[in-house]
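testing teh design pipeline on a random one, pls ignore if ur not involved
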């Protein structure tokens, strides 16, 4: 099992190569949560996530054992980039096996850091099997979470949290395979035994929750999730006993809560966080993290490697969910001035038209009618309701609940 001295040794080793990421106090989130909330900004780390810490700890610790084949890893995203960057810093070759569905942008980033990328498999397990085959031919396997040196590297985040905020009461950490939370929990409990550590998983892939229920790692079914960085179907064998013994609880958050947290971080804190990185805030604001009022809480924003098309969908979904974008369908007479009159009602009540589709001849409407699909920017749910009520009061046929 990884110890506090292991983590301290890892910090000495990787310190020259990684960023001591900021711990940022957020007055806005503190008011919302009723606690003193700080963000541990691993999204600002080299490679865009915490993963370089563990990869560097492994590669630098075993640098003398690495042969011409270099290091091998399997990952769909952040670990791939972390290993590629760590290998470049250490001056060794890196080969990363990524599943066929890995995003093009993450493939490109991994190659840009100098790694050879091999696309193989329809699941991460199949990619890992291929990486093990390459390892058997001479490459050194750097596992994403089931490795003591990797866990020690991730634990350096806990040392930085303790150094910057010794009085911290609770730290909320995303959980996938478990290496991050195991390292942080080990570091924090070794420096401040009274601190509470809470893990967070996407409800779509509750591998750690089910492992704790079963008393051992189990493989779970998973669904697509915004938090793809923690979509790991089986928690690691090495992290599991640490999670069981040192983590107070692991909670689940849904997709809407994750999307809302991502949007809130972006809009109010100007922080671009991927779904996994926003999961701790989702747990805080949903109440599942069970934060003591007035306590000092740290949220580990583990990464910010988010594809732009996904970011667009998250923003759109978040604006609709928070009532700031209203989707309506309005049927009106197809006559001169009818459209202008209807739009003037919206404009006079402060609505901003973002999109309008003008459809004639749609099934279900008369030949003298037209159906309009509207996307309207509003100030919030109350404003949206006032606009919809006013349209109905003026005699327009309005359908739609405000959601696409």
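output:
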């Amino acid at each position: 099992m990884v110890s506090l001295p292991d983590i301290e040794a890892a910090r000495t080793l990787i310190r020259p190569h990684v960023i001591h990421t900021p711990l940022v106090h957020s007055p806005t989130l503190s008011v919302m949560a009723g606690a003193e909330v700080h963000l541990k900004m691993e999204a600002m780390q080299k490679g865009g996530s915490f993963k370089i810490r563990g990869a560097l700890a492994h590669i630098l610790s075993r640098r003398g054992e690495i042969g011409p084949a270099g290091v091998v890893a399997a990952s769909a995203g952040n670990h791939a980039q972390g290993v590629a960057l760590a290998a470049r810093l250490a001056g060794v070759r890196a080969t990363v096996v990524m599943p066929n569905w890995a995003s093009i942008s993450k493939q490109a980033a991994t190659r840009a850091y100098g790694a050879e990328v091999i696309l193989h498999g329809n699941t991460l397990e199949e990619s890992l099997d291929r990486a093990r085959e390459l390892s058997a031919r001479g490459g050194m396997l750097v596992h994403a979470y089931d490795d003591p040196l990797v866990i020690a590297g991730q634990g350096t985040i806990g040392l930085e949290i303790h150094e910057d905020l010794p009085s911290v009461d609770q730290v909320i950490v995303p959980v996938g395979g478990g290496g991050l939370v195991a390292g942080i929990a080990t570091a924090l409990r070794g420096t401040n035994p009274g601190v509470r550590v809470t893990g967070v998983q996407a409800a779509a892939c509750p591998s750690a929750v089910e492992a704790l229920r079963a008393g051992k790692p189990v493989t779970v079914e998973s669904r697509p999730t915004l938090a793809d960085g923690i979509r790991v179907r089986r928690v690691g064998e090495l992290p599991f006993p640490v999670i069981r013994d040192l983590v107070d609880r692991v909670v689940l958050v849904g997709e809407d809560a994750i999307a809302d947290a991502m949007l809130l971080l972006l809009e109010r804190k100007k922080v671009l966080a991927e779904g996994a990185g926003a999961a701790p805030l989702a747990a805080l604001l949903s109440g599942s993290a069970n934060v003591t009022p007035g306590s000092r809480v740290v949220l580990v924003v583990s990464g910010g490697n988010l594809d732009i098309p996904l970011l667009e969908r998250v923003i759109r979904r978040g604006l609709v969910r928070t009532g700031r974008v209203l989707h309506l369908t309005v049927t009106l007479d197809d006559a001169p001035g009818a459209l202008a009159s209807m739009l003037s009602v919206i404009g006079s009540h402060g609505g901003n038209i973002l999109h309008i589709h003008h459809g004639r001849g749609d099934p279900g409407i008369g030949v003298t009618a037209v159906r309009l699909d509207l996307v309207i920017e509003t100030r919030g749910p109350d404003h949206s309701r006032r606009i919809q009520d006013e349209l109905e009061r003026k005699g327009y046929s309005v359908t739609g609940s405000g959601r696409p």
